[in-house]
């Protein structure tokens, strides 16, 4: 898509007030300087990519307005209901959509568990998708830094995408450090009661640091990385999560991973997520 086409599309969108002033803003097309290959500038505001546009549509049922209500973002945007519901989609693929949110320190085995869990579900004929904390920064969140406000936005976006996957009837596996209870609670609040399943990888800092698969702890100790969770930024462990996994063994052990995955699969099975609602 060329710049002109992007501008025409952008001109029909509204910018989230979180990244501009409270009034609705549109890209200024009268100023040729307002269009640049890396993104768009909004009347002197800092450059942001199109991914910052507030969503103006989503799926139905679990994230729609309450029965009898009309959901409006502003006077120009109204929820458009679809006759195919979440229940219809779940019946089609014979499972129940939910979000499995795996949280823990770097090196605790979150990504390894996510992959093992996805394989275990696949072997049972169940559809899942992984939103990995590193992988989403290659695309969806590639415009975000590791500053506090951008890390919060990173979690918010993943939570919103995970909600859409769950609404589609898919078992979404999100594996992120997500160190703060407030941000995890905000993601939980996006979903119907019971559909956010928090899995805490309860692994001590010294074990994670000894593993250090990416060499990040070593760099953080050397002062090369600031604000690294567990070193000079806190991690707030869950107080009331659904599943706690203590992974103090070799995280790459196939038997260990399959055992941990089976714990989560058993929870899903016992709570009705592996069959349609």
TrEMBL record:
Its EC number is 2.7.1.25. It is an enzyme of class 2 (transferase). Coiled coil: none annotated. Keywords: ATP-binding, Kinase, Nucleotide-binding, Transferase. Residues 96-246 form the APS kinase domain. It catalyses: adenosine 5'-phosphosulfate + ATP = 3'-phosphoadenylyl sulfate + ADP + H(+). It holds the Pfam family APS_kinase. Transmembrane segments: none annotated. Belongs to the APS kinase family. This is Adenylyl-sulfate kinase. It comes from Brassica oleracea.
């Amino acid at each position: 898509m060329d710049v002109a086409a992007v501008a025409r599309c952008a001109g029909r969108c509204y910018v989230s007030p979180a990244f501009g002033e409270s009034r609705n803003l549109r890209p200024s097309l009268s100023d040729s300087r307002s269009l640049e290959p890396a993104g768009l500038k909004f009347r002197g505001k800092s450059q942001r990519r199109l991914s910052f546009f507030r969503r103006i549509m989503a799926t139905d049922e679990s994230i729609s307005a309450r029965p009898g209500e009309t959901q409006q973002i502003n006077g120009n945007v109204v929820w458009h209901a679809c006759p195919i519901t979440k229940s219809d989609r779940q019946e089609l693929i014979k499972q129940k959509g939910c979000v499995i949110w795996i949280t823990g320190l770097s090196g605790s085995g979150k990504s390894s568990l996510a992959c093992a869990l996805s394989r275990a579900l696949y072997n049972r004929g169940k559809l899942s998708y992984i939103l990995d904390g590193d992988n989403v920064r290659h695309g969806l969140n590639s415009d975000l830094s590791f500053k506090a406000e951008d890390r919060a936005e990173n979690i918010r976006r993943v939570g919103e995408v995970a909600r859409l996957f769950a609404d589609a009837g898919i078992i979404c596996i999100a594996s992120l450090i997500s160190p703060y209870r407030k941000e995890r609670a905000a993601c939980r609040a996006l979903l119907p009661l019971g559909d956010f399943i928090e899995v805490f990888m309860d692994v001590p800092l010294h074990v994670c640091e000894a593993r250090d698969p990416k060499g990040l702890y070593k760099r953080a100790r050397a002062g090369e990385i600031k604000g690294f969770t567990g070193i000079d930024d806190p991690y707030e462990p869950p107080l009331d999560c659904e599943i706690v996994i203590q992974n103090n063994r070799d995280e790459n052990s196939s038997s260990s991973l399959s055992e941990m995955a089976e714990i989560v699969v058993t929870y899903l099975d016992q709570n009705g997520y592996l069959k349609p609602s």
